[in-house]
Amino acid sequence: MPFGSRAYCWDMSRENVQLVQSWFERWNRGVRDFAEDEVDPDVQVISRLRSEPFLGREGLREWFQEIDEQFQEWEVVGDEWRDAGERVVVLGQVRLRGKESGVAFSQPTGWLFELKGGRLFRVRNFVSPEEALEAAGLRT
Questions:
Q1: 6-44 confidence digits (pLDDT tens)
Q2: Domain map of the chain by residue range?
Q3: In the chain, fewer beta carbons within 10 Å around the N or the C end?
Q4: Model pTM?
Q5: DSSP 3-state of 1
């Protein structure tokens, strides 16, 4: 039940949260691209899987490609969505199945999405939900 239970903080901007939720839903359906008006030209993806950020629209595509190359299946699950102005923190888990090993696992995680004018500017993923809250200046 990936999107069955969502906890919301009432002081958040529903528009930003709904935008990020729509991206999660699309990614889980296998849609890995963004419309031109959804992404800042200088978009950055800061991933645990790589020491250097992925940069620009091409970097965003490369990020998805790298995930798809490593994992036969992957699903991002948002359990709690918090707004922090132009940032959205998502607390949840990632469910993965290794492409070569076939081993499936689920891991708690957190994401910090930074938006500029309603467009994705930066996304960072974290080993734990607490790290994502800390990065956004929020407390649990």
A1: 444 434 468 899 999 999 999 999 998 888 899 999 999
A2: 7-135
A3: N
A4: 0.86
A5: coil
